[in-house]
Amino acid sequence: MSLPFDVSPDRPEHIENILNGLDRYNPETTSVFQDYVQQQCEDRTYDCYANLALLKLYQFNPTLARDEDITNILVKSLTVFPAPDFALCLHLLPPHILTPAATAHATPAAGDAPLSEAVQKLSALNSLLAGAAYAAFWTTLDGDDLYADLIADVAGFEELMRVRVAVCVGQAVREVERPVLEGWLSLHGDELVRFVTDVCGWSVDGATVRVPLNKENEAKGTVVRENVKFDQFSRMIHRAYEQPA
Length: 245
Description:
By secondary structure, this protein is mainly alpha-helical. The protein is 56% helix and 4% strand.
């Protein structure tokens, strides 16, 4: 069972105290949250609630905002798809950053143009993930040097993404052709075999990768029974013929 978005088992006690008190809106805590974002990037943990708190502080105090923190938070939120964390983070960013530079009506402040481009690039990745276009996700990620810069601070980003893709695949299918899975995971040959067997616990049978039965990919017939009594219909019909007062 997944945890609520405001709960993180790896959250330090001092961060927990800030989030549960009025200091979460204190600009002086901005540096604490910034250090915590960097810690998440380094040790592969993730705390959506704390990251949203930092973005909220940036909303209230735009002069304190740092582009690298915003992009790192967005990149980290991609690693937990299909959770809606990426969209939650976008809703806390200024509108002119969300609008492509070529169509923006307002002139962005100095330094916002690179951030706007980065947000657009990451939004494109999120859209591909949301549409289960996993092969296109890897092609897009590898096809632009800007992506390499954006994910550089997030340790193990590609590995984390492969795990998330595998989780989604395992919930949807019982078997998949090996060439298709190679495109979805951007792994080939022995690397693919090691990943699906050691990490996922799947098996490779020639050109087919088999996924064990689980409660998500098991095909079950569903029978829906409606417990509606006749007197409920009679009351509804009676009211239909009642004259308005």
